Structure formats: structure tokens, C-alpha cells
Amino acid sequence: MEPIATAREQLVELYVDKYERWAEKPFFRSPHLSDKQNDAMFRLKWAKGNVFATAPLWNDVVPQRDRPVRRLLQTKAETARRLHHCYVVHRDLDSPEGELAGRVVDGCRALQASRVLRDGGFVDTYNFEKKLNGFQWRALVAAGRGEHARTDLLAQLDRFEVLAAAVLEADVAFRERNNGPTARARLTAAAQAMTAEIQALTA
User: Positive or negative, the Cα torsion across 57, 60, 62, 66?
Assistant: First the structure.
């Protein structure tokens, strides 16, 4: 008998295409970048070759780190070094801790794509996604650092599963909302429980 999928796994199966999941992302960038840093990161992402294949790992010592990026005055490799700790690459996450962070990332994507959050109007989606991006970034950074990350990541996943269960229940109720008064009452109750869990997770 196959184990029952968790709420997070069910949402991922529903809303995250298999080609968009964890293994397809070459790197992850901080949600807290300045406009100039975002522009520089965008140019690196679409530059010829894979700059991030040789970019510094999270725990590497990088003398150029945090120095201003000057367009056209430095190589792509130096730009990547200056933006160190503005991104996490897959080589940082090639570990059991990285796999746990991947579960958080895919779960966050599934929540953002769920119908109840996308179309239900129960939450401010812009602010929720902003907080969710911060939540998944903290998981990625913890995995990139490596030390003592497993306990923190397991705790994050436990908290996330509680939210995912509330979202999944509300999502099912939202998709069945036209099945009569009982269905609408169920949606109201599920939406209230979901918004309470969102507030608890992102507080």
C-alpha cells in the first residue's frame, strides 16, 4: 500500500508542472535585491554560457563580495562574485538539506498557483507572495550554509505542512463552491482557517 501524500505533495502535484519543479532551476536569487542588483542578476542569467556553474558557493570566502556592480567594466565571473550571497546555486544545495529546501520551494510555488489563493480573493496575493518568497529564501540560505540546517529546515517543513493542509482544504472547497449552500458554508469555514494559518506562518 502506497503512503498517503501529504497536503504539500498533493498541491505540488496539482499545480506545479513536473518540468518546473526543483531540479529545473539553475539558481535562486534573493527577494531583497536592489533594482541595480536585479538588473545585473538578470543579465547574468541570460548571458552566454553558464556563469553559475563556476560561481562561488555560499560558504566560499569572496573578497569582491558586496562591491558595487559596474556594467561593462568587469567580467561576468567578477559580477557573480560581487553578487555573492544574493543568490544560491544548485551546487550549494547538493545535500540532504538542499533536498529539504527544495520541498519548501516547490510547496511555495504550489501555494502561489492554487486556485483559492489566485482567484478566491481571500488574501492580498501581492503581500502574501512577498512573504512567501522570503520564507523560501530563508530555507535556501539555511541549506546553503549547511551547518545545523537540518533541524531548522524540518521545523520549517512542519510549519509549512500545517499551512498546506489548510490551503488544500480551502482549495477543494473553492473548486466545489457551486455545489449548494453546504459547499459555500464549507468554503467560508475553510477560508477562515486558511487565512489564520497564513497569518501565523508569515507573521
Answer: positive
